[in-house]
Specification:
- The chain has about 450 residues and is α/β, with parallel strands linked by helices.
- The protein has 2 domains: about 190 residues, Aspartate Aminotransferase, domain 1 (Alpha-Beta Complex), CATH 3.90.1150; about 250 residues, 3-Layer(aba) Sandwich (Aspartate Aminotransferase, domain 2), CATH 3.40.640.10.
- The protein is about 40% helix and about 15% strand.
- The strands form 5 sheets. It has a 7-stranded mixed sheet with strand order 6-14-13-12-11-7-10, with helices on both faces. Strands 3-4-5-17 form a 4-stranded mixed sheet. A 3-stranded antiparallel sheet has the order 15-16-18, with helices on one face.
- The protein starts with 5 loop residues before the first strand and ends with a helix.
- The chain binds 4'-deoxy-4'-aminopyridoxal-5'-phosphate.
- 4'-deoxy-4'-aminopyridoxal-5'-phosphate binds next to α5.
- 4'-deoxy-4'-aminopyridoxal-5'-phosphate (PMP) binds next to α5.
Length: about 450
């Protein structure tokens, strides 16, 4: 008799049976959700208000009734421990009280007027205190912040290209939507409606590969390296010792700027990975949770880059700059930034998040060992991920090979059927200041139950 076919160590026939059973269980337990979708979803393209919502692994999406702290309640009345937390937008919990208060206060004073308030100045001060000496701009999404940062980098260097790492994600910034294909930079195959060859604007190399970085920078046409401190948008890839120092030295030597996108790694601790690990970016970007869940992003230039940009500005013809959007830097964003930076994103919050995430990572790792699963767990502060392959992973190619969509979809649905929600695009779990120890222990127990079924 031949050995059974395995997917990430799981017999594929067993996986198929469990997948079907769990999908049925999800659908059968949510009649109101299903009815609401049937009655209300048709006006939307793809029957969802944003097409990523089709990427959840369940037969149909949850419809949320309300959320508080680290809990969601869906339309069918299920209470769910939320470890997805809006894929980081709510990393500090749903509606943190100081942010909710700030929203109520500001709602009485106007929502948008394209002028600063006093809170804007307070926000600027707090941003500098938290993240370092940068000259700040407020945007609405991290996508926008990265686009604007790239414009500045190209303006001040006069160079065309951005260097990104294979498997990166920096929002829907077209320039970064490239991949490596047998050593060549090419457009990502799934990118919609991009008719230009993006290799004119971008060069893609592997993370942790300084020889490749050096070779790309030596061409002299790279305006900036844009990177996350840790690759979080593939299966998580940590920087190897010395990588960031070498990257910083190489960018300086070759006259390219270094843009650090902290959007996901604000999980690292106070001031993000940049502060915790002493990185020295020329441009700093953060979004998602930076204003406690209010759509807000921030980007900042070092005084040196700001001075170079001022020199560029005097040479620029009048007209559209291509930076900024109408609703950005609105008073609600300032109010939420101040509340979040001063009262939510605190050392105490991070201590709680770190401790909880450590507990979660240890519990998940112990469950993997117990079941002999050939998987591993990675953690960056409050951000924990299990990866359905052995590790550690060194780059985007290894991360793509480690991704096991079929197994991951089953695990996600099983966890949800046991009351735990994790992020849909990867196996990511966040511990917020509101996350309770008992929620973490429930997730560990559910994960153990899932592995018992998968590995027998
Ligand atoms: N940068 C990073 C590192 C991200 O992970 C993301 C989103 N996942 C973005 C930028 C873009 O954020 P947004 O979708 O809010 O524009």
């Amino acid at each position: 008799m031949s050995a059974p076919e395995l997917v990430a160590g799981v017999p594929s026939a067993r996986l198929a049976l469990i997948a079907e059973r769990e999908a049925r269980r999800f659908a059968a337990s949510r009649p109101r959700t299903r009815a609401a979708l049937e009655a209300g979803a048709a006006p939307f393209l793809d029957r969802v208000p944003m097409h990523w919502m089709k990427d959840w692994p369940m037969p149909f999406p949850l419809v949320v009734a309300k959320a508080e702290g680290a809990r969601l309640e869906d339309l069918d009345g299920f209470g769910i421990d939320d470890f997805c937390l809006g894929d980081t937008g709510s990393m500090f919990g749903h509606s943190p009280a100081p942010v909710a208060r700030a929203i109520r206060r500001q709602a009485r004073r106007g929502l948008t007027y394209m002028l600063p308030t006093e809170a804007a100045f307070q926000a600027g001060q707090l941003l500098t205190e938290r993240f370092g000496d940068f000259r700040w701009q407020i945007a609405t999404t991290a996508t926008d912040a990265n686009r604007f940062a790239l414009r500045v980098a190209r303006a001040v260097t006069g160079r065309p290209k951005v260097l990104v790492f294979n498997g990166c994600y920096h929002g829907t910034v077209d320039d970064c939507m490239v991949t490596l294909d047998q050593g060549r930079t090419v457009n990502r195959p799934g990118l919609v409606g991009q008719v230009a060859d993006l290799s004119a604007l971008a060069v893609c190399v592997e993370f942790n590969d300084m020889a490749a970085v050096e070779a790309a920078l030596a061409a002299g046409d790279v305006a900036a390296v844009l990177t996350e401190p840790v690759m979080t948008n593939s299966c998580m890839v940590l920087p190897e010792p010395g990588f960031h120092a070498a990257l910083r030295a190489a960018t300086r030597r070759h006259g390219a700027l270094l843009i650090i996108d902290e959007t996901h790694t604000l999980s690292s601790g106070l001031g993000g990975y940049t502060r915790v690990h002493g990185l020295e970016p020329d441009i700093f970007v953060a979004g998602k949770c930076v204003a406690g869940g209010m759509p807000t992003a921030v980007w900042g230039l070092t005084p040196e880059v700001a001075a170079r940009f001022a020199d560029y500005e005097v040479t620029r013809a009048p007209g559209h700059s291509g930076m900024g959007t109408t609703l950005s830097a609105n008073p609600m964003q300032f109010a939420c930034l101040v509340a979040n930076l001063a009262e939510v994103m605190t050392a105490e919050s991070y201590a709680h998040m770190e401790k909880g995430a450590e507990r979660l990572a240890a519990g998940l790792s112990a469950a993997l060992s117990k079941h002999g699963a050939p998987w591993h767990v990675v953690r960056v502060g409050a951000r924990v991920e299990f990866i359905c392959a052995p590790g550690p992973l060194r780059n985007g190619t290894e991360a793509a090979a480690a991704h096991q969509p079929q197994v991951e979809a089953v695990v996600h649905t099983m966890l949800l059927n046991r009351g735990c929600l994790i992020a849909p695009f990867h196996n990511m779990m966040l511990v917020s200041p509101a996350t309770k120890k008992r929620q973490i222990d429930r997730l560990i127990a559910a994960f153990d139950e899932v592995l018992t079924e998968l590995f027998g």
